[in-house]
Amino acid sequence: MASSTPTKGQLERSLSQKVQALYRDELGQQPSKVSCQLCGMKFIIILEDSLTQPEQILAQGGQEDLLEEVRTNLDDFMKPQLKGLVEEVSGVNVTDLLSDVTLESGLTGIIAVLEELPAVRTSTPS
What we know:
This protein is an alpha+beta fold and 126 residues long. It is 44% helix and 25% strand. It has a single domain (2-114), classed as Threonyl-tRNA Synthetase, Chain A, domain 2, CATH 3.30.980.
């Protein structure tokens, strides 16, 4: 039974891979790196190079207002799917999902607040 329970690192890696695939499949933009960290009852997710090509064009063209509107709509579209991925990987309900992007750096930060601690297998210290 212990072998079927994932370690914290396995949960983090699995979620990173699934988030990267979601962005690739849904937005046609695969972030260059996705980092996930389970911190108690929260998953912290950082996406690097998360802006889509149209967003990059808007940024280069000085269309910041339109870019903000596009990004807000994309975030609203992605939230239910991200919530579902976190719940699938962790086996725990997500009570809130917060996200924001820094347009200058292309970094997206997501915090998924969990209803309870996910079950994880403790790894033996080295």
